[in-house]
Amino acid sequence: DVKVTQSSRYLVKRTGEKVFLECVQDMDHENMFWYRQDPGLGLRLIYFSYDVKMKEKGDIPEGYSVSREKKERFSLILESASTNQTSMYLCASSSTPTVNEKLFFGSGTQLSVL
Amino acid sequence: AQKITQTQPGMFVQEKEAVTLDCTYDTSDPSYGLFWYKQPSSGEMIFLIYQGSYDQQNATEGRYSLNFQKARKSANLVISASQLGDSAMYFCAMREVPSGSARQLTFGSGTQLTVLP
Questions:
Q1: Residues 6+ apart with CB under 8 A from A29
Q2: B9, B45, B95 member nearest A105 (Cβ)
Q3: A&B contacts, CB < 8 Å
Q4: How high is the pLDDT of residue B46?
Q5: In A, which residues are within 8 Å of B93 by CB distance?
Q6: A90/B45 Cβ within 8 A
Q7: DSSP secondary structure of B24-73
Q8: Which of A9, A97, A99 has the CB atom closest to B32's CB atom?
Q9: pLDDT in tens, B13-42
Q10: How far, in Å, are A100, A103, B30 from residue B61 at the CA level?
């Protein structure tokens, strides 16, 4: 089974801190994604990557950056955390970009910025 | 404009009964895929079912079926014989296939389903 692992289930940070959310997948998937989940808004795509060192902005990239130095690892970075970034963050991966390719998700990181 | 619309923020169903979760979508691409995911309280998103835009038959996976009405742009999820373990948030999602954006899924806002004993 595909395993997507997010490093923390719960995280509490202070406003202005630099925050790293880590995601690792073990199935050699080319594509990796970071989504943000908020009540009433569903999941919104922040960034995705289709290859090592490649990244593309999603729908809400402002305030975030990403890093993909190795194929299995995709990091989401909040350069200076703000309270409006309090949210559930979900990492996902997939292999070939065909229309029916499903995403495999991690368990999520609930980030609270105080 | 919203690409995926789920109009039911919350639904209740009695155990062993069937329930339909609504999803409408908006796309001008002829080729697209529709997905349903389940998110229990543990947080992990679980893939349930997939329907391709060119599929002639409605998709089925065990107790899950997708009522695909292409002309109406709807892709409702039907859960038969509900179980207590079906209580979760359900998300409808779509992948469109123009070049350059074939990889991402666009999600709806979700429906919280509660199964009553």
A1: A2, A71, A93, A94, A95, A104
A2: B45
A3: 61
A4: 94
A5: 43
A6: yes
A7: EE----SSEEEEEEEE-TT---EEEEEEETT-SSPPEETTEEEEEETTTT
A8: A99
A9: 999 999 999 999 999 888 899 999 999 998
A10: 15, 17, 24
